[in-house]
Amino acid sequence: MKSGFITILGRPNVGKSSLMNALIGEKVSIVSPKAQTTRDRVNGILTTKDYQMIFVDTPGVHKPKTRLGEYMDKCVRGATEGVDAIVIVLDVTKRISDADTAFVEKYLKGDAPVYLVLNKVDAVGYDKVYPMLQRLSFLLTKTEERGAVKEIIPTSAKNKRNVDLLRDYLAKELPEGPCYYPVDEITDKSERYMICEIIREKALMLLNDEIPHGIGVSIQNMYYDERDVAHVLIDIVAEKDSHKSIIIGAGGEKLKMIAERARKDVERLLDAKVYMELFVKVREDWRNDGLIMSDIGYDMKKLKK
Ligand SMILES: Nc1nc2c(ncn2[C@@H]2O[C@H](COP(=O)(O)OP(=O)(O)OP(=O)(O)O)[C@@H](O)[C@H]2O)c(=O)[nH]1
Ligand SMILES: [Mg+2]
């Protein structure tokens, strides 16, 4: 048996979580068109008869402006130590900058093999991808200061293009090892964590720009009644009063939509009928308040490490 950890890194919104979900064939990490969707490290586990591959999805790399941002940054920093491979994702719909290549080169100085993925090729023609491949090809050659990227692979997480190919390359990097997780598990996260993330995903989709970034989600209470219906009471934490009314929407419409969309996913996750209630609470500037962040479920010890 082979097994190992593979970290997925890159800027916000390049498709890291989509790629991880495509690699394991399950929806583990939430995905949205807004930057900074992923806030924590999320393991996605793929077990076959030959190997157990554990992908580590990370928040997008950005300059932190809040404590939550610092927390996310910490999640990224700690995620590359001792792993068996690193996948760095770039987005072909964006310009590739010197900062992007410098970011890749930084990881080429470490021990783990680095795979470079150019994602979203379905959204542009190959006439755009080729110049990028050329521009990045210098990374395939080792220098005195750093190693070389093992492969540069154009992918589409959306239509699965080259996802099998990438997975095959990564499987070759796995050392002999045990199953770190039970064979039927697809993530290290709890059901409760997944439920909160599902709510956040729907909120990200249904709310306009600035608001979703200021939202935190936590479970107030969860229990099964005698008919095995799961009752889930959820707090959505907003950072301003004005945000609260937007999240609730006229006549509660917005909140109802979030709840309705989330309920379907939560029912699938729990394999049970679900009764869900959402409450919106305001906690001024919670993204800078360690105590409230800890209440919402962020492991604040990470910031001390
Ligand atoms: N066209 C196209 N869109 C994609 C592809 N992969 C991801 N996307 C879209 O890009 C957006 C961001 O995807 P995510 O997977 O959330 O990106 P991420 O890198 O995890 O983002 P953060 O967690 O915010 O850092 C979503 O709207 C996805 O649907 C792809 O291969 N092609
Ligand atoms: Mg993500």
Description:
- The protein is of the alpha/beta class and 305 residues long.
- Helix content is 36%, strand content 22%.
- It has two domains: 2-172, 3-Layer(aba) Sandwich (Rossmann fold); 191-304, GMP Synthetase, Chain A, domain 3 (2-Layer Sandwich).
- It contains eleven helices and nine strands.
- A six-stranded mixed β-sheet has the order 2-3-1-4-5-6, sandwiched between helices. Strands 7-8-9 form a three-stranded mixed β-sheet.
- Helix 6 (191-206) packs antiparallel against helix 9 (253-270).
- The radius of gyration is 20 Å and the shape is globular.
- The mean pLDDT is 95.
- It binds guanosine-5'-triphosphate and magnesium ion.
- The site of guanosine-5'-triphosphate has 24 residues, from helix 1.
- Guanosine-5'-triphosphate (GTP) binds at residues 10, 12-18, 31-33, 35-38, 59-60, 119-120, 122-123, 156-158.
Short structural description:
With about 300 residues, the chain is of the alpha/beta class. Helix content is about 35%, strand content about 20%.
